[in-house]
Amino acid sequence: MSPRHLLHWRGVLLRRALQIVALLLIIGSASFLMVRSLPGDMAMRVAASRYGYDFVGQAAAGAVSQALQLQRPLWQAWLDWFSDLLRLDLGESLVSGEPVWHEIAHHLGASIDLAVVTLLLAVLIGLPLGIAAAWRPGGLADRFMLLFAVTLRATPAFLLGILLMLLLAVHWGVLPAAHDDQGGTLWLPALTLALGLAAGLARISCSALREALASPACEFARSKGLTDLQVLIRHAFRLAALPVLAYLGVHLVLLVEGTVVVESLFAWPGLGHALVHAVFARDVPVIQGAALSLGLVFILFNLLLDTLMLAIDPRQRKPGASDA
Amino acid sequence: MNQTPPNPARRRLLNATGMAALAAASGRLLAQTTPRPLLIVSSWEISGLSPAASGYIFTRLQVTETLLGSRDDGTPEPALAGRWQVSADGLEWRFELRPGARFHDGSPVSAQAVLHSLERVRTPPGLLATVPIRSMDAPDGKTLRIRLRSPFVLLGSVLAHSSTMILAPASFDAKGTVREVIGSGPYRVAKLEAPHQVETRVSEYYDSPRPAIGAVRYMAAGRAETRALMAESGQADLAWNLDPASITRLRSRNAVGISSVTLPRTLAVSLNAGIPGLSDVRVRRALSLSIDRAGISRALLREQDLAATQLMPPTLAGWHEPSLPPLTRDPATAARLMREAGWTASPAGWRDAKGQLLELRLQTFPDRPELPVLAAALQAQWREAGFAVKVSIGNSGDIPLAHRDGSLQMGLAARNYAMLPDPTGTLAQDFAPNGGDWGPAGWSSPIVSDALQKLLRGGLTPDEQRAERRRILLALQQELPVIPVCWVRAHVAVNRRLEGVRLDPLERSFRLTEMRWKA
User: Signal sequence: where (chain B) (predicted)?
Assistant: First the structure.
């Protein structure tokens, strides 16, 4: 790697490192303050989540308040959190009493499993469809792709999930309906998410490929005497890869963070679902831990994406080029 | 579409073949080939390991035992304690432990171990904290003695409650926090992934006949649709907390069996009788007379016979009084009562002599899916009768909180009157003179307080007990500090391969030891 490249990389990494430190402080403190300033009695909310509605009452809330020292002043609680954070200790869940690291690792692992398989399925379904549609504009594949993309993008994930459950689990009996640790339970939630993602991916890859095929670079390649297929494989794919990668990168982050509906429908123990539960329960340490992990995942994925873009596109390695 | 039974061979084939590349990305994609355990799915998450938090899940799964058990009618029966005696003055209780009982770590269930476990649950919200205990000791290895400061007939019920389940000393850390659930029941915990699932196996140390079901997996799935589809597809063998629409669908498709039991639980509106308007019994009666309970039961619960005619359902025989005049719908009488109470009808609602509008707030929470819908139905029916009601849906803690700060007007909940197997305990809490967390606010009745005190003191003949219960039920029916709306029936989808399923009306056990797979 040339010194110029090293300089470029140092800039990227330094910027991301600064972002991570700022993120720890801003997201952690903001989620702490927001949850603590919500209306309603925190002890009662935690007690309701901890003991269930048959058992929640003033005795339970009193016990929670005492055990968790909820009467402490806000600044003191924040300082305690911050000093724990410096020791990389995210504390314990107010509801289960389990270490937050332990809970987050469990949920984040499940979310990443789901996101990666979803992405692979989406690529397997969406990319060939997009390429076929771009290859013959106005052809059968193009029209099918449009119908596929519009229908699936317009179908809410909740409805699509139920339909897939009915078809694949109930009527054909080929897949388990929801997560139960038995194996094979990742398919349905991944397919539900992948179909929506594949629809967008097919459209993006189709238009990127068409643009690439019409670019002067491909025109020149054809004038050199390359066949259409050779142009597609050697030049157009690489040109079209940039918008497709950017699209997938953003959606991979969204998949890890924002699949609450699908996670709860398929009882998938992911992070989005856990975060929503923690918000209802006012489980501050879990909310902080989840928000921090999601922020870190966002930054790391972006870093990964930058690296990929840089590897694919030589133009970005020129001095003064954006590092996203 | 026709229903086809789930095909495990096809499922395994699809999962196992053609997916090798993706399987590398995640082990969760691979199908498991070992025989699957019985799968129970419900909405209850394992929120923690302490007996007060999720003890009810571990007692239902028969991982842990309580000192005493309970028959369906709420009377105590032997459990971990094979026998028990109460002194004539009711101040000393002695429990003799089952001689062969062992914890899942192999250690014997000694009186010292039971004492160790009970000492750790004597703090709120554990129900043992409500018992006037003078001392607890173990005169010998298999006998536990509890001495009371005053007679407390509900001690047997408290010791049958899941918050007093007995855990082995090794379950607790040095601070007394439960780190592992080591019980003495027929099943031991094999794998625990809180809050979603727990897997159990038959304990090799259990001292009674070995259950036919060798392994059980319990999992929490938040959505009722998910649970219903898991049952319908054959994935789940027992699915709890189904919504009425799913039950209708499952019944019509005949894919699974449905077992039902009426619970000692009532969907009821607790009122604050201390605020203007609701302090007048005529207004409370008018509110009750405006409710179309049969309509709600039919349309929302999809059941014909759950319209509450009084507080307790007929299945709670000791606490259901057939001679009481039933609660009915009568809009004309409701309007007459309101006028007699000094209210005038206006397009916006009932107004008092000063022109002030009677505006009420109904609080509820979504932990049971029928509650928000029921609140909306009540709001519509009351609006027809001229009552302006706002619905507020929050967290289940909001109602006890509103009790505490005095802001409660009306609270809708599904109150479990057999939280202790004997409903006297819950009634005494709800109808205490200064108001409980879930009962009415600003209301007290000398008749009810006196009758509850007599029942709690004990020493009554069965006839006297019946008479006291009738006094309580009559006063509640006439005064209506709590307006019963519908009773609650639990429906469970049962895999047709499973037999011996018998639901527990007191929701204390899944009764897994009575179940077996059909040959």
Answer: 1-31
